[in-house]
Amino acid sequence: MGKGGALSEGLLKNIILSYTYVAIWIFLSFTVIIYNKYILDRKMYNWPYPISLTMIHMGFCSSLAYILVRVLKVVEPVQMTRDVYITSVVPIGLLYSLSLWLSNSAYIYLSVSFIQMLKALMPVAVYSIGVLLKKEGFKAKTMTNMLSISAGVAVAAYGEAQFNAWGVALQLGAVAFEATRLVLIQILLSSKGITFNPITSLYYVSPCCLVFLSVPWMIVEYPLLTEASSFHFDYVIFGTNSFCAFALNLAVFLLVGKTSALTMNVAGVVKDWLLIAFSWSVIKDTVTPINLFGYGIAFLGVAYYNHAKLQALKAKEAERKPDSETGRLLDESKGENLTRRNESGNVYHLWPERNDCIFKNKRSYDMVVKTIFDDIRSKNLNVNLKPSLNVVWVKLV
């Protein structure tokens, strides 16, 4: 096959792989959400203990992450001091544990479809908190977009047939904690040059979450679990559920690493619509036309937000290209100067031996000077060389 055919095959392979990564992430994300709903919902598996379920996930993920990092050495641990861990990672772990606790609790009171609609407020929360913490600059155009998303979610909430105020409060709290966590990651970690992939993130953050969740668990759920003497831990249900949660983090690592974060955002929109359709058709949750109309408004706002972010990234990339080109030319110039210096040094150290040979042959002063200058001219060394003592001696004679 010709060169063009080979390129086409390579492009086709990349496209297939990208769609495969997207499909894996959508499937696992979809599975974890439905699985959590199944376990926590009183009408299904009827195990309404969200803190306990989150702790099982964190314990499982901590153990597997430790094996991958320390035993199998799949990824390298991040180098950080104890002070950095306490001041940067621990606060993020606290926010993450609160976000997971509240979001899992919301499944007890709200439908899957309505929860996905409420999650559309995430860009609004991230931008608002970023502005408050001075990580983002206030822009009237962006805020107008945020208000349109909020209005769409409000319409969807107005049309919700199974509206539960406590469930909405839990989900909005989860969105607020998660948005704060995302902003603090930029402030506390990225600004210090610390970056986590999903595996190292679980390795460092999951143990924190486990410790923080143990406090409300002892107060809220432990007494209830001790009273429910008929309960027996189902290793198959909770084991597969925890494995799906861990696999989802690996899928995030794979998707973002092989494509981009923007691809994951777009895939997330597809996943949300699939979950709404599944919730309506299989779980038989009620989805009203007002629900869909409101979420449609929010969806358009989120899509425009992602588009604006993409354009901003392209503009920054375009600005970096001239700078990188200038840097490349400077590096080449430095490399050329370094080469010249090395050559001049070699000539300088070789001159004494060469000049000794010249003087041993008892050549005339003019012949010696001509030989040396011809040598310099032939090497095109545009530098000032310190002549050897023999050359000085020739000039003095």
From TrEMBL:
**InterPro entries per the record?**
Sugar_P_trans_dom, TPT_transporter
Superkingdom of source: Eukaryota
Its transmembrane ranges are 12-35, 47-72, 84-102, 108-130, 165-189, 201-220, 235-255, 262-283, 289-306
The main location class comes to membrane
Domain named Sugar phosphate transporter is located at: 20-306
Keyword terms: Membrane, Transmembrane, Transmembrane helix
Q: Where in the cell is it found?
A: Membrane
Membrane as a keyword of this entry, yes or no, is: yes
Membrane topology note: Multi-pass membrane protein
Q: Which GO terms describe its cellular component?
A: membrane
In terms of Pfam families, this protein maps to: TPT (PF03151)
- The name on file for this protein is Sugar phosphate transporter domain-containing protein
**What organism does the record attribute this protein to?**
Centaurea solstitialis
